[in-house]
């Protein structure tokens, strides 16, 4: 083989490799576009469910929940909706809270934060509903997201920080632990990156892998809101799936 033939082979190889790379990139961009448009669910590809600590979060939407059945499918923890705003209590909370304990499934209670009532009265609603003894349970959680007209008209940051701080401080004084904050990366960047950095984070990224839109610390990733398991009936078809960060142990999130 002379030098010219060798150069020709190398040139062809480079062209073929370039085409292959271009095709792969095009496929990945297409998949990412479909994921962002919510047409496909790719997050499960990035979660090794057999080697990870997997949990669920539920509310009355899941209706009748069989905690033992969830455990049989590898679910190791569960967050249960307790309250919303200053006056609403989830109709299934007491039942789910008791059943999780009976099944020895590690559970935590969460509150859906409202921008329309004081943090103080929201905290009182949560504490009255959940009780003051949560030893052996997961850290109390507060779900902070944009809803209804707030998606278009974002609440004032100063007001959110003030009321959420009141809520968190009251829970910390009551339970002796800092709650964990559930939110989305865009909301975290808008409201939390300066004022709540000392809190553990439960981050939602449902249609694309979390590392693509958030590079901060996190303990739980809600990676799917269209999970399908056995063990709940009479309500919503789907269930939210969550995974612990590999650097976080479940025991780290349990109230001692």
Report on the structure:
- The structure is a single chain.
- The protein is α/β, with parallel strands linked by helices.
- It is 35% helix and 21% strand.
- It has 6 helices and 11 strands.
- The strands form 2 sheets. Strands 1-3-5-6-7-8-9-11 form an 8-stranded mixed β-barrel. A two-stranded antiparallel sheet has the order 2-10.
- Strand 3 and strand 4 form a beta hairpin.
- Helix 4 packs parallel to helix 5.
- The longest helix has 34 residues.
- The protein is globular, with a radius of gyration of 22 Å.
- The termini are far apart.
- About 2% of the residues have low confidence.
How is this fold's topology laid out?
Blueprint: H1 3-36, E1 54-58, E2 64-65, H2 67-72, E3 75-84, E4 88-89, H3 93-102, E5 106-112, H4 119-130, E6 141-143, H5 157-175, E7 180-184, H6 185-192, E8 201-204, E9 220-227, E10 232-233, E11 239-244
Parallel strand pairs: 1-3, 3-5, 5-6, 6-7, 7-8, 8-9
Antiparallel strand pairs: 1-11, 2-10, 3-4, 9-11
Helix pairs in contact: 4-5
Number of helices: 6
Strand order of the largest sheet: 1-3-5-6-7-8-9-11
Radius of gyration in whole Å, from Cα? 22 Å
Uncertain regions spanning at least 5 consecutive residues: 22-27
Q: Globular, elongated, flat, extended or rod-shaped: what is the shape?
A: globular
Task: Note the beta-strand portion.
Answer: 15-25%
The overall pLDDT, averaged over residues, is 89
């Amino acid at each position: 083989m002379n030098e010219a033939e060798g150069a020709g082979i190398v040139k062809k190889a480079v062209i073929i490799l370039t085409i292959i790379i271009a095709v792969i990139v095009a496929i990945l961009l297409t998949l990412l576009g479909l994921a962002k448009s919510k047409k496909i669910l790719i997050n499960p590809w990035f979660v090794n469910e057999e080697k990870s600590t997997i949990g669920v979060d539920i509310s009355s939407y899941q209706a009748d929940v069989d905690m033992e059945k969830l455990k049989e499918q590898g679910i190791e923890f569960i967050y249960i909706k307790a309250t919303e705003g200053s006056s609403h209590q989830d109709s299934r909370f007491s039942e789910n809270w008791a059943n999780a304990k009976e099944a020895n499934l590690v559970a935590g209670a969460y509150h859906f934060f409202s921008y329309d009532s004081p943090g103080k009265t929201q905290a009182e609603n949560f504490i009255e509903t959940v009780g003051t003894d949560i030893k052996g349970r997961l850290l109390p959680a507060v779900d902070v997201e944009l809803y209804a007209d707030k998606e278009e008209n974002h609440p004032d940051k100063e007001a959110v920080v003030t009321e959420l701080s009141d809520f968190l401080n009251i829970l910390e004084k009551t339970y002796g632990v800092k709650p964990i904050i559930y939110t989305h990366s865009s909301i975290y960047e808008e409201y939390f990156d300066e004022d709540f950095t000392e809190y553990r984070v439960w981050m939602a990224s449902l249609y694309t892998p979390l590392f693509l839109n958030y590079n901060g610390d996190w303990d739980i990733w809600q990676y799917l809101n269209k999970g399908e398991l056995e063990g709940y009936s009479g309500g919503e078809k789907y269930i939210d799936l969550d995974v612990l960060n590999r650097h976080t142990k479940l025991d780290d999130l349990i109230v001692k």
